[in-house]
Amino acid sequence: MFRRHGLRATAAACCAAALFATPAMAGSDGPGAPGAGDDYFPGYGNGGYDVSHYDIQVRYQPADDHLQGTTTIVARPTQNLTAFNLDFALTAKSVRVNGVPAQFSQDGTELTVTPAQTLPEGSLATFVVEYEGVPSTVEVDGLKPWIRTSDGALAVGQPEISAWWFPGNDHPRDKATYDIAVTVPDGTEVLSNGVNTRNSSLAGWTTWKWRTTKPAATYLAFIGVGQYEINSRTGAFGQPFVTAYSEKLGEYEGAAKASVERTPEIVEFLTGLLGEYPFEAQGGLVSSEGMNFALENQTRPTYSHLFFRDGANTSVVVHENAHQWFGDSVSVDTWRNIWLNEGFASYAEWLWSEHQGTGTAQELFDHYYAQHPADDPFWQVLPGDPGAQNVFHDAVYDRGAMTLHALRNVVGDETLLDIVRTWVSEKRYSTGTIEEFIALAEQKSGKQLDELFNAWLFTKGRPPVGEATGVKESALRVAAAPPKAVAEIDRTHALLHNHD
After folding, report:
1. Which stretch is the leader sequence (predicted)?
2. What confidence tens digit (pLDDT) does each residue in 389-407 have?
3. Which domains, from first to last, does the chain contain?
4. What is the structure's pLDDT at 481?
5. DSSP 376
6. pLDDT average, residue stretch 190-201
7. What's the CA gap between 349 and 322, in Å, rounded?
8. Confidence band (pLDDT; 50, 70, 90) for 298?
């Protein structure tokens, strides 16, 4: 066992303590924990059960933002369960557990359910919740993530959004498959995850049905409702490729299409680096209002029109599709580990630039290292433990990408590819921690990497030049002209950091 920096050891110990400090352990009778044990967001997720599938059926009226729905959750208790919590912000009208009415109460986003009988550990359980509300008016702890637009809505957000349109276990540790059916007035389009299985109309309303067959975290399930131009064709590897563009994009329409329609090409590029694409469909949605960020919704990222205000932007498409591996397939075990999402997706942009001939990864590393002098506050945020208020800080993205390039400089190209491919293969459809990634990197490289990871992820201040830290002398020199990719990457990251 290698020695670890104190910050890493402390963070890991805190996470372990929070995880096991639950009201009832497996095999005992009692209520499930009201949180998943995440230090950054203690109330997110729940304990006592594992969800395998969500069947979400909602009826939504864009004119007044009224939503009513019925969600059926298929789960298995991980203990003898006397009560449990669901994360939900709208008004629950009724709850049934295994077909029997259950008592329930609500406080903020905690929906506490007491079934008529204890649910045995390991048994099949179904939770059916009927509900309604006006999501854009619901605020909990200062949060209002639901985005109402002039022609519909966007249920898109990170790390919270699902509680504003369906009840669930809202933490990446508990992934599930989804059937999502949304009924809207005729002439309104609905986009969601996976494959569009069926549309049907009756009495002036149309129901759009979407299915995703690979496990997804709750925040990665989304809907986009409004007036969209929808295009369907075959994407990479013969998979369905569905894109949607707001009919109000105006001057941004051409640049948006010139970017997002390259998704299959980008997915093929990423597959060459990372291994098999982990999902069953591809695509993207571009909004014209309501959001100023992009998000890696599983199989179908969502982009603000602002990414395309200066022309085509493939960097953001690379970033969000890299997340299909880093963040979607392999998710954070707790939100402290956000570097595993954002650092890797940002470094994928650098590799795309290298592939396109607009700047090598070393040139980009040198640019960002020199751009931030040693006394820049940028270096005071730790990508390995940024704190709940800084999970989307510049340093998590840019210093995060620099960390991976420093690792590349220390272990070499082939070893880095081996590390990354092994990580996404062994962790597919599950979660991971920074400590687990470091252990894998040391195993694959045969090198002791404490100095590198401590300097880049867990120590305030600019990492020094040196062989052990992966910083070359060239990083101290400001290039006369930065790599061509810099402007697009900077424009992309300036918006991406807003998605909290």
Report:
1. 1-26
2. 999 999 999 999 999 999 9
3. 10-223 (2.60.40.1730), 227-324 (1.10.390.10), 332-496 (1.10.390.10)
4. 63
5. -
6. 98
7. 9
8. very high
